[in-house]
Amino acid sequence: MDPTQAFEATIRREGAFTFIPLPFSPRDVWGRLPRYRVTGEVEGIEVGGTLGALGGDYFLRLSKAWLAAAGLDVGARVTVRLRVETAG
User: Looking at the chain, which runs of residues are DSSP E strands?
Assistant: First the structure.
């Protein structure tokens, strides 16, 4: 299991939710977990949270405060590095 995944994505918004869609299935990469708690960086800025899921698609939700502090907005193409946190 590779704990770190790096990819490029576009920040999206649907309704009140702003998020980064994941281009992979956490189940395929990190195995089956009850929830996927991740940490990492977006454009080199620390980020973390629990992945959301809609159908088979996973995403990392971004708060308005995080976006403002990072100077990023919807439509930005970003480099993302995420690691899954596992119970130890």
Answer: 4-10, 12-14, 17-21, 37-42, 45-50, 52-54, 57-62, 77-84
Separation of alpha carbons 27 and 85, rounded Å:
14
**Separation between Cα atoms, residue 49 and residue 52, nearest integer Å:** 9
Strand (E) or helix (H) holding 11 = none
pLDDT score for 2: 64
How far is residue 38's CA from residue 79's CA, in Å, rounded to a whole number?
15
Q: What's the N-to-C CA distance of the chain in angstroms? A: 15
What pTM does this model have? 0.90
For residue 18, is pLDDT > 60? yes
The Cα 52–Cα 15 span in angstroms is 15
